[in-house]
Amino acid sequence: MAARLAAEEQLPREELICLIACRDEEVRSALRTAAEAVRKKYYGTDVYIRGLIEISNYCRNDCLYCGIRRSNAAVQRYRLTKEEILACCEIGYELGFRTFVLQGGEDGGYTDAFLEDLILEQKRRYPDCAVTLSLGERSRESYERLRAAGADRYLLRQEAADPVLYGRLHPREMSLENRIRCLWDLKEIGYQVGCGFMVGAPGQTPEHIAADLEFMKKLKPQMIGIGPYVPHRDTPFAGEPAGSLEQTLMLLSVLRLMFPSVLLPATTALGTIAKNGRELGICSGANVVMPNLSPQYAKDKYMLYNNKLRSGAEAAEGLAMLRQSMEAVGYQIVTDRGDCAGWTNGEETN
Ligand code: 5AD
Asked: Do 152 and 131 form a contact (C-beta atoms < 8 A)?
């Protein structure tokens, strides 16, 4: 099945479900080997880094899995100022970051005018850097305005392409329909778009994951973010088990084979459930890591799940350690905007 997936970049639904459910170590190792070969064909042994800036933990949403959900009264809320965000970029630029990811809850306190002004200033100071936004669902007009200000990429996980699972993970007032509308709007407006889901989200089955993969085949995203579900004690899903390391690694390989040139991060959540999780992710087909450039007080308060990695190689100061650990497994961190292979000046060429 690994060879067929590598050759055809797709499998009929029943076989896809079967592969996702497969726990055979031989199959998994064949997927990993094939994925590494494809990854090297498009990206060599380069690992792109993104400076993650957690700009706010205010959120209007109440997603059942998320630690910063609005009904979690235990969270101390914060919102970074323009100056604080630009200070993170300055530190990051010196360290070699050429992409900044502004991520936050859906915080009504950040108006389009504020974000526009911020992005214009980032682009003025760092014209050689990409700006990625990860700020949730906004109106099409807002996405257009932020794109016009210079934002290059947008991350918005669909979380679950299956409407029943989506409904179980989210409060009634949220809809899969609007989520998908946002993703298509972002694409049409000309962002490089990222989508994704949590592996092992409560109630998730291989069928649900197959639906996510099929949705992504239609969307053709430039980036895909997956990481294990990790419980947070102050959520309704506190007692649910975390997603597994092996399942996440296998899905990274499957994604690399289905989307050969996609930008695929070994996520913080993966590094949280296993000490060498990110290195294993890179060896399974991932080609991006996203070290955290947020001020320490923000890192401590931006708790989507418990035990989030927030020191050592995760902190920007630990970049040297991350460099070393990537080199130890045969890859190297590069100073580069790291656009999707085949993406030039806002256009896809492959
Ligand atoms: N475990 C793992 N990932 C989570 N996210 C939110 N809560 C959790 C959790 N408990 C992910 C969501 C979101 C991204 C920013 O973080 O998929 O899209």
From this structure: yes
What does the pLDDT look like over 107-151, one tens digit per residue? 999 999 999 999 999 999 999 999 999 999 999 999 999 999 999
Tokens of 16: 């896809």
Closest atom of ligand 1 to 196 CA is: 17
DSSP string, 326-340: HHHTT-EEE-S--PP
Interatomic CA distance for residues 10 and 345, integer angstroms: 28
Q: Are 221 and 195 in contact (CB under 8 A)?
A: yes
Cα(343)–Cα(338) distance, integer angstroms? 10
Return d(Cα 304, Cα 69) in angstroms, integer. Answer: 8
Q: What angle do CA 11, 208, 54 make, to 5 degrees?
A: 110
At 344, phi and psi to the nearest 5?
Answer: -130, 130
Q: Beta strands 130-134 and 153-155: pairing type?
A: parallel
- Our CA angle for 32, 38, 41, nearest 5°, is 140
CB-based burial of residue 337 (10 Å sphere; 0-12 exposed, 13-18 middle, 19+ buried)? middle
Q: Are residues 185 and 140 in contact, defined by beta-carbon separation less than 8 angstroms?
A: yes
Nearest protein Cα to ligand 1, atom 6: 66
Max CA distance (Å), the chain: 53
Contact 247, 274 (CB under 8 A): no
Q: Which residues line ligand 1 (CB under 6 A)?
A: 65-66, 157, 159, 198, 227, 229-230, 232, 269, 304-305
Q: Whose CA is nearest to atom 13 of ligand 1?
A: 157
Tokens of 83: 């100056």
Q: Which two tokens stand for residue 145?
A: 């305005």
Q: Please name which of 4, 1, 53, 50 lies closest in space to residue 28, comparing C-alpha atoms.
A: 1
* Residue 264 in this model has a pLDDT that exceeds 60: yes
Average pLDDT of the chain is: 95
β-pairing, 46-49 vs 332-334, is parallel
